[in-house]
Design a protein that fits this description.
It is found in: Membrane. The protein is mainly alpha-helical and 276 residues long. It contains ten helices and six strands.
Length: 276
């Protein structure tokens, strides 16, 4: 029985409902990063236990000795790797070297709870089987996930070097003129945030998914536009123009509110007519 081929990319859906195409880590890179991380943890545990003065406390049946040993091992096997994983945003030393990262199944940053669950499951599938069970599960998983990932709802992805920030979507003169006069009355903040997120991440999306998402968001934004945009305006160009118009509308509203507040304040503090 052959292991299924691991797809180079996995499509996930963010909390904003945005589909993203991420490159999952290979089983080999996961094995290498795990070997590095767990070797470092083993060294830390051994050094910590060795630093305890067992030359004078040799009775391992002593309750205090048992408590210290159990606490040290628990911290080393569960709490330390979980805290390091969560604090580093899923980028442990082994994963930095292999250029991989642990993220939530929706692409978000891993939480302490997720990291603790991964570490707890890792006691059985990594420590007790020397990584054999974790490797087998990852090899046959569609996303290359071990049991800890499946229980915690996480993924290990390949980190791609950050690309230069994309320039704003260029607008045609006709669309730019429309945006300078358009208003978007009642556009939900959730829709505006989803549109902004889409423009920020659309370069990482699969072409078909990107086009479909652009058309959907453009259609939703168009319902709140007054007047409607020029005919045949490309979806992504319209979204960029709409966000610019919404930002301008918000700035104008804020300035009008500030001016009104200043006028009201000056009238309230002015002396009555005829009084000096």
């Amino acid at each position: 029985m052959n292991a299924p081929d691991l797809p180079p990319n996995t499509v996930i859906t963010t909390g904003d409902g945005v589909p993203l195409e991420l490159e999952t880590a290979t089983v080999f890179s996961r094995m290498l990063s795990g070997l590095i991380d767990y070797s470092l943890l083993t060294i830390i545990i051994l050094l910590t236990l060795g630093s305890l003065d067992y030359t004078t406390v040799v009775d391992f049946n002593d309750p205090q000795t048992k408590a210290i040993s159990t606490l040290t091992i628990a911290i080393g096997l569960v709490f330390l790797p979980a805290l390091v994983t969560a604090a580093s945003g899923g980028r442990t030393i082994g994963k930095l070297i292999t250029r991989t990262q642990v993220v939530r199944a929706d692409g978000g940053s891993i939480s302490v709870r997720d990291a603790l669950l991964r570490s707890l499951v890792g006691i059985g599938e990594v420590w007790m089987t020397l990584g054999a069970l974790a490797t087998i599960v990852a090899a046959f998983s569609k996303t290359g996930s071990r049991m800890g990932d499946l229980f915690a709802g996480t993924l290990v992805i390949r980190r791609i070097p950050a690309r230069p920030r994309q320039r704003n979507t260029p607008l045609s003169p006709e669309v730019e003129h429309w945006a300078s006069n358009a208003t978007f009355q009642g556009a939900p903040a959730s829709l505006v945030n989803a549109a902004a997120t889409h423009l920020a991440v659309m370069e990482k999306m699969a072409p078909a998914t990107r086009e479909e998402r652009s058309r959907t968001l453009a259609a939703q934004l168009r319902e709140y536009a007054t007047p409607h945009p020029p005919a045949e305006t490309a979806a992504e160009m319209f979204i960029a123009a709409a966000l610019a118009a919404i930002a301008r509308n918000g700035a104008q509203a804020a300035q009008a509110s500030l001016k009104k507040n200043r006028t009201t304040s000056s009238r309230a503090t002015a002396l009555p007519y005829g009084l000096e």
